[in-house]
Amino acid sequence: MGFLSRLFGAPAQETTSATFAPGLGYEASRASRRLAGWTAERATINALQARGGEVLRARARQLVRDNPYASAATEAFVAAAVGDGITPSPVLADKDLKTALKDAWLRWTDECDADGLTDLYGLQALVARSLFVSGEVFIRFRTRRPEDGLSVPLQLQVIESEQLPLSYGVIQSQVGNEVRHGIEFDRIGRRVAYHFLKRRPGEAEIGGGIGAIERTVVPASEVLHIYRPLEAGQIRGQSQLTPAMVRLYLLDSYDDAELDRKRTAAMFAGFITKAAIGEAPPVAIREDVLDLLDTGPLTAPDIETALADLEPGTLQVLNPGEDFKNSSPADVGGSYEAFMYRNLLAIAAACGVPYIALTEDPSKGNFSSQRGIELQHKRRVSQFQHQCLVFQMCRPIWARWIETAALAGSIPGLGPTRFTRERAALSTVKWQPPKWDWVDPLKDRKADELDIAMGVTSRDDVIEARGEDPEEVDARRKEGQDRADELGIRPPPGAPAEPPEPSPPGDDE
C-alpha cells in the first residue's frame, strides 16, 4: 500500500455504542432525543470531493451564472482580493538593476497571457474568481521560442479544474506512483505530474469529442495548483460557495416564485361570475379576442390563447347575467423583508463578503458598524492574498520569470552567471496588494501621521499599506518638486507642510 493509501485509507473501526451511548461524553456527541437525527459525515474532504465534487462545482458555476447574489459575491470577492493587481517590489541594493527589473516586468505583464486576452493582473483576477467559484485553478508555464518576439520567452496558460477530473485515479503506476484525483504522487507523497484532459469537458462536441478523453501528462514543475487548503492532506480545492449553495438556490426559487405570483396576479383587473349554474368556468379575456364571442362559444384553444399572454389591466366584457369582481391579489406580507434579510445575511457570512457588498443595500448599518465589518473583511482578504495568491501564484511566477529572463539575456546587466551568484537576492520580492479605501480617509491619514510622529511605524510602511512602492513615490515627488522649482511654481496658500521628522528615541529635548 502506497503513501497516499496509508494516509487516506479507510478509518479504523470505532465502537458505536461507546461513541453514542446516551448520557456519556460530550453533549454534542450523545444520541439524545434532540440529536437522534443528526448523522455526521466522517469521510475526509478528499473522499467527499470524489463522491460529489464534480456536481458541486457544476452547481457553483450555474449559481454564479444565474443567481444575482452569487454573482455579486463573486465580483465583490475578486475586487477585494485583487483590485488593480498585486504588484512586486524587488529588494535589491543595486538601484540600476532594480529599475531594469521593474521595467522588464512591466513589459512582460502585458504579454504573459498565452490566450492574449489580458495582462498578468487580469490573470490574477481570473485565478481569484476560479478559486471562489470552483475552489481551484491551474497555471501551466509555457516556454516560448526566441522568434516568438516576447520580451521574456515565457507565458502563462490558465487551466480550469474540469480538465483534471476528480474521478481519475490509479493505485499503482508503472514506476510505483499513485494517481489520486488526477494528480500523480511519488512514494513519499510529492507531486510529480498532472494528468490533464486535452480539452475541457463540456466542449467535447467540438471536433468529435476525441480531446475530451485524451490525456496529457504535465510534470509538476511546469504547473501551479492554486487552491485554499481547508484540511491537512487536502488534494483538491473546494468552492467557497459550498456552505451557501443550498440556501442560495432555495432562496432564489422562493423569490422567483413570489415575483411570478405577483406578476400573474397583477395581470387580472377582475373576474366574471356567471349567474347561471352549469356554465363553463369564467375566463378573463383580452380585447383582441373579444371578437370570438360574435362567432360562437369559446373553444378550449380560444381559452388557452386568452390566458397564455395576459396583459396588465385585462378586463372582460359582461354578458347578461354576469357579475364583475375586482382582483385583490394577496400581498407578500410584512415578514418578507425580514425573511430575505436574514437569509442574505447568512449567505454573505458563508461567502465571506460583507452584506452590503452582496446586496448593495447600505440601509442595514451605520458608519461604525460598517467600518467594523470592513476591518474584519480586510483581515480575511489579507489572509487569502498572502497565503494563496502570493505564496502559490505570485512568488513562483516571479521565480520562473527572472530565471527565464536571465538565461535568455532579456534584462541588461543580468546574465546566467550573475543570476546563479545572486539567485536568493533576485528572488526576494515584496508583494504589495491593492490599497484599501475607507469611508472617512481623513481620520486614517491623521492616524498614520500620528503613528509616524510617535515612531510606532515608518513612512515606508504607510506607503506600502496603500499599495505603493516607497522608492517610486519618493522619485515621483522629487521629480515633481524639481519641475515645480524650475517653473517657479510655489505651493498654494494653506497647503500642509511636510510632516516633521520624529525625534530620536530617548531624546527629550
Automatic annotation (TrEMBL):
Composition skew (Pro residues), residue ranges: 490-509
InterPro entries referenced in this protein's UniProt entry, alphabetically: Phage_lambda_portal (IPR006429)
Amino acid composition bias (Basic and acidic residues), ranges on this chain: 458-488
One Pfam family here: Phage_portal_2
An example Gene Ontology molecular-function term: structural molecule activity
The organism's place on the tree of life at top rank: Bacteria
Name listed for the protein in its UniProt record: Portal protein
Organism: Methylobacterium hispanicum
